[in-house]
Specification:
The complex is a heterodimer of chains A (343) and B (438). Chain A has 343 residues and is of the alpha/beta class. In chain A, helix 1 packs across helix 11 and helix 5 packs across helix 11. Chain A is globular. The longest helix of chain B has 17 residues. Chain B is 29% helix and 24% strand. Chain B has two domains: 91 residues, Urease, subunit C, domain 1 (Roll), CATH 2.30.40.10; 308 residues, Metal-dependent hydrolases (TIM Barrel). Chain B has 438 residues and is of the alpha/beta class. The chains are: A alpha/beta (343), B alpha/beta (438). At the A-B interface, helix 3, helix 4 and helix 6 of A face helix 5 of B.
Chain lengths: 343, 438
């Protein structure tokens, strides 16, 4: 196991914030995944703490409900020694967006080192990142991206299969409204997997054929010989927008059960970002069955988030002083002296 | 008595006479006395103030066919006065002002009278109000078209909306025809474009932004064409932005319908990739389109299908823009960037200078029946002088508007206004005295 010394420079995948997977390079993603492997081992020890960043402050700012993602970020930060504050804001009770900036700048004035943001507007993370003095991690913004989910999915698959390149991976379900699908599309694609998207036409985003993935509207065809299936959550409120007609019909054609799994490769694995709608997009027998990696995903989530937090804080620590001053980021070690009030 | 003015060594661009020639411009008593090569031979009026333009260009003052004033998200400091100052600084000599839902009203005689009074007396540049088509822009009850026209309304519009109800729209068209008022509508089908901030496609999809298909514009426009045929209304498509819409207008014109069309300088200057990392400066409605749409719009200006290019001036406060993309207010101020941004199409060789000034001035003046748009002898001396070659950087902190939500900040332009005159009086000048001949 690694000692609690500052990480060597090679692990510094040049990230000042993580708002999306799309702009990353395969090398950056691989570096994060490699680093996360260490933290899986650490998290299985009795003493799970490696306080590389003790005394730093992490704020988890959640404008949407979340249990697993928020607690995963909290635990990841705590294991690295950060002090953690979580703030849940019911977005229905505040004005649109404007409050996002005000809230964020108020928190920014409390000198956090990292902010984890979940928000219902696409682009909220890219909107805030240049306005904060600290690092920012996107924990899901609207229907844009959820980068750490894609990283943990990639890590889970890589650990189970030993590789990602050349695997046939199918993403099934409500791709239109899924930030997980978008992040996975880029992440797994960049790492060399062959992607298939399976959904009714109403739940596929426009222009998706330009993504490079193969598109299917039938599970029987789309799941032929796939090595991995990622099942997406179906949000029931979509029925009102005429995206599909009933849960019954949806499960009949797109819900993953033993029969639909039959054409897949014999060692095919099943992932789901959670929370699941059992009997809608996935049958319980599959979710709890031997091919399911759903619990492993949750475990790996903590490790991946530790790696991301480490990467961002390391990047800021090693930045030459003043290099990012133009963007409003303060050089490491000048927190108090900077005196840059932005509120 | 005001001194007569003479501008020699000028390149005179007058689309109303298809005139692009070197010559002089003579202004007497606030009217054009002569403009063009023949003005050269008319001698100098006695006591005239003389400017040697050294080959610089004289154009009729711009007639901006669509600017929003009194918008809901504007700053309190944005008044008719600041709007007029911004128009003057942009070489605009007449401004067609449209109200938007939630902003200052334009659906009563009192409101239109007040706008007219403010637009004539409180502004450097005359502002001509467009009245709302329905009360409160609710799409149900018609406003008093005849009385509104008598009060000074020059056209009818429904802000950024169109009418969902085709039966009401049909009657509105019939009624407007009786009072000879043009109807200018935005053409985005309401249900398909509900909540949309982007054009449907891969760009919007990977950014996760709500988007409308381009067909939303064609559907609304095609319906309006059918109703225009049915009623004979003078119809002006206020802002077309897609290639299919261009073809619909082309057909309607070929058929002889009383139809005209405009697009905005924003739709001509940017495509959907401009928004980069969710920069709300480029959040517009209708949203930015694909590059092929932008190219189709430029071609349609050159070949005469599109009649007018507007600033689509939409002042918004910085607060209304400092939000995540989809929650930010749409629109940008445009009065001061209209002319230099349009000149890019001339410098790129896509559109002749004569045609460009025609769509910025002459045609919109004809569509709305406004004075100006011409340098004919006898016309009001509304003109602008520009240096076609001067290069400069547009800067949001130097705008005359109170709101500075421009989409052109820090962008380089070639071609810059030197002076703007209305009724022979300078409403804007920048180093004009350097050209004065003693």
């Amino acid at each position: 196991m690694k000692k609690s010394s500052p990480p060597s420079l090679p692990f510094c995948p040049d990230l000042s914030s993580l708002t999306a997977i799309r702009p990353l390079s395969p090398a950056q993603i691989t570096a994060l995944l490699d680093r996360a492997e260490n933290y899986i081992a650490l998290s299985r020890q009795k003493n799970k703490k490696q306080p590389l960043f003790s005394g730093r402050t992490q704020i988890n700012l959640f404008f949407e409900n979340s249990t697993r993602t928020r607690s995963s970020f909290e635990i990841a930060g705590q294991r690295l020694g950060l002090d953690n504050v979580s703030i849940d804001i019911d977005h229905s009770s505040v004005g649109k967006g404007e409050t996002l900036l005000d809230t964020a700048l108020t928190l920014n004035a409390m000198q956090p080192d990292i902010v984890v943001l979940r928000h219902n507007c696409s682009g909220a993370a890219d909107f805030l990142a240049p306005r904060l003095d600290c690092a920012l991690i996107n924990a899901g913004d609207g229907t844009h991206e959820h980068p750490t989910q894609a990283l943990l999915d990639a890590l889970t698959i890589r650990r189970a299969k030993g590789r990602l390149a050349g695997l046939n991976i199918a993403i099934c379900g409500d791709i239109l409204h899924s930030r997980v699908a978008r992040s996975n599309l880029f992440c797994l694609g960049l790492l060399g997997a062959r992607l298939r998207l399976i959904a009714p036409s109403t739940l596929l985003p426009a222009g998706i054929e330009q993504s490079g993935a193969e598109i299917f509207h039938s599970m029987a065809e789309g799941l032929q010989n796939v090595d991995v299936i990622i099942v997406l959550r179906l949000q029931k409120e979509r029925m009102t927008g005429a995206f599909f007609s009933s849960e019954r019909e949806y499960f009949h054609f797109f819900g993953l059960d033993a029969a639909k799994l039959a054409p897949a490769a014999p060692d095919c694995l099943v992932l789901h970002p959670g929370p699941m709608n059992r009997g809608v997009e996935i049958a319980s027998a599959i979710a709890d069955g031997p091919r399911s990696l759903i619990r492993t995903q949750v475990e790996n989530g903590v490790a991946v988030r530790m790696a991301v937090i480490e990467a961002l804080l390391t990047m800021r620590d090693y930045q030459p002083a003043g290099a990012k001053a133009a963007r409003g980021n303060r050089p490491a070690g000048q927190k108090a002296a900077g005196g840059k009030s932005r509120v | 008595m005001v001194k007569p003015l003479i501008f020699t060594n000028a390149r005179i661009i007058d689309p109303s006479r298809q005139c692009d020639e070197y010559g002089s411009l003579i202004v007497i008593e606030g009217k054009i006395a002569a403009a063009g090569a023949q003005a050269h031979n008319q001698g100098r009026p006695e006591g005239a103030k003389h400017y040697d333009l050294g080959g610089r260009v004289v154009i009729p003052g711009l007639v901006d066919g669509r600017a929003f004033i009194g918008t809901a998200d504007s700053l309190p400091g944005e008044t008719v006065k600041t709007t007029g100052a911004a128009a003057a600084a942009g070489g605009v000599a007449a401004l067609v002002a449209v109200a938007e839902k939630g902003g200052a009203p334009a659906d009563t005689v009192t409101a239109i009278r007040a706008l007219c009074a403010a637009g004539q007396n409180g502004s450097l540049v005359p502002i001509y109000p467009v009245a709302a088509l329905t009360k409160g822009m609710e799409g149900c009850e018609l406003t008093e078209f005849g009385l509104l026209r008598a009060a000074g309304a020059i056209a009818l519009a429904e802000g950024h909306e169109t009418l969902r109800n085709s039966a009401i729209l049909r009657r509105a068209f019939q009624y407007a025809r009786d009072y000879d008022l043009p109807v200018m509508l935005e053409t985005q089908e309401a249900d398909l474009s509900a909540g949309a901030v982007m054009t449907e496609g891969w760009q919007a999809s990977f950014m996760g932004l709500p988007a409308a298909p381009r067909a939303a514009e064609a559907i609304a426009l095609q319906r309006d064409m059918e109703l225009a045929r049915l009623t004979g209304v003078r119809y002006h498509a206020a802002h077309i932005s897609t290639a299919p819409a261009v073809e619909i207008i082309r057909q309607a014109k070929a058929e002889g319908l009383a139809v005209s069309a405009a697009t905005s300088i924003n739709s001509l200057s940017f495509n959907e990739t401009a928004i980069g990392a969710y920069d709300s400066a480029w959040r517009f409605f209708p949203p930015l389109r694909a590059e092929e749409d932008r190219q189709a719009l430029i071609a349609a200006i050159a070949d005469g299908v599109i009649d007018a290019v507007t600033s689509c001036h939409e002042p918004r406060s910085a607060d209304a823009k400092a939000r995540p993309f989809a929650a930010a207010a749409a629109g940008a101020v445009g009065l001061e960037s209209l002319l230099p941004a349009a000149l890019r199409l001339y410098h790129s060789g896509h559109i002749s200078l004569l045609r460009l000034i025609e769509v910025l001035s002459t045609r919109p003046a004809q569509i709305f029946g406004l004075p100006g748009g011409t340098l004919q002898p006898g016309a009001a001396a509304d003109f602008a002088i520009l240096d076609l070659e001067e290069t400069w950087l547009f800067a949001k902190d130097k705008l005359a508007s109170a709101c500075n939500n421009t989409a052109f900040d820090k962008m380089p332009f070639q071609g810059r206004l030197i002076a703007g005159f209305i009724n022979g009086k300078a409403v804007y000048e920048r180093n004009l005295s350097n050209l004065s001949v003693l």
